[in-house]
Description:
2 copies of one chain form a homodimer. By secondary structure, the first copy, chain A, is mainly alpha-helical. Chain A has 12 helices and no strands. In chain A, helix 2 crosses helix 3 and helix 6 (87-102) packs antiparallel against helix 8. The model of chain A has no long low-confidence stretch (mean pLDDT 89). Chain A binds chain B through residues 113-114, 117-120, 174, 177, 179, 185, 189, 192-193, 195-196, 199-200, 203, 206, 208-209, 211-212, 215-216, 219, 222-223, and chain B through 113-114, 117-120, 174, 177, 179, 185, 189, 192-193, 195-196, 199-200, 203, 206, 208-209, 211-212, 215-216, 219, 222-223.
Amino acid sequence: MPTENEPRPAKSEQTRTLILETAMRLFQELGYDKTTMRAIAKEAGVSVGNAYYYFAGKEHLIQGFYDRIAAEHQAAVREVLDRETDLEARLAGVLRAWLDIAAPYHEFAAQFFKNAADPESPLSPFSPESEHAREAAIAVHREVLAGSKAKVPSELADILPELMWLSQMGLVLYWVFDRSPGLERSRRLAERGARLTTRGVALARFRVLRPLVHEVHELFTDFLPGMAQTVTASKRRAE
Amino acid sequence: MPTENEPRPAKSEQTRTLILETAMRLFQELGYDKTTMRAIAKEAGVSVGNAYYYFAGKEHLIQGFYDRIAAEHQAAVREVLDRETDLEARLAGVLRAWLDIAAPYHEFAAQFFKNAADPESPLSPFSPESEHAREAAIAVHREVLAGSKAKVPSELADILPELMWLSQMGLVLYWVFDRSPGLERSRRLAERGARLTTRGVALARFRVLRPLVHEVHELFTDFLPGMAQTVTASKRRAE
């Protein structure tokens, strides 16, 4: 029996988790478009009003799901980040951990893709609404870089983790459409991508290349709607 | 009245064009998924058998459409490629010309996107089925580079046009979701992308960077299904 020092999750947290897990199951079974909040509430055994109390709509359930994947990923990468100091090994480990955690949702991701591909959709990984999950994911890459032996000029220390996360989004896009057994092609791409990124980071110390790195990063923040806010927020935190 | 030296398009070519244009109109009005070959034939005033004689299915109509856009683009870029020798101006002109030609199909592209986003779909720009249109598009970039004053190491002369085309596909992806008036954000991205690519090409002459350029290109040909074939075919032609 839990004592006061070992609190069990509050009832409200349990209900929130129940609704989220029920929604994810129904999204997978019926598809995102055909699943209603009413059906989710009924299946979870809560009132419709109660479901809306925890999640203002289907989109918020997806944000809850993104946050959950991000939290599971942050926990799963501890093992590799506490052990490895080689940048390529750290990055490959982080990408592999993501593929492991996301594997159960692969089929859902393929049919859900059309809802998330539009950068102006709140469900896009680049949207302002996804900022919380995106910030958590970028923080992982910040730690991948900071805890490695790689020498990084200080002017690029804020930029590179965001570019590394962007390349992870490239892997996610590839993974969505991957039909190879055991998603082995995505796993190979993770290894190759980690090697390529590590080479890119090593080259970024050449002074002649830095303007290009800045320009790629600027292009990306200028043209993806939610990104500029994240960059501003991370600057505010740094001050 | 046309003489023997000025042949008018053969009847079969006219019928083919009529079917293609009717299909594109119906795709835009009804959506790709809901438009049947039967409806296209009826609207074009030809028999269903006749429609299938020219296009083996809806997918072939899309390939015909891709080829047509590529041919119109090849004609439209002549003006800028015959006049400019500056790489950035040549590339910006080529990208602007593409946005002009594709503008009437913008709404269709947004709803069609989900059919073309899967790299294993025959309708993907990376598929073996799209090779003809892709080859034509890469040939434009080969000419953009070859006719410019930019100095390019011979070992990269085959690779850079494919990477330039890949960055054009990035612009196309952005354009699909662009809702700015007059698609002005896509136009600005075309300018910025041309500048960035030009800088990248200028840096590619540094020997220290060439392994990275090769590795990016290899990654791209290894992981996109149709690309390896295009690369093999272009090597065969060069021999």
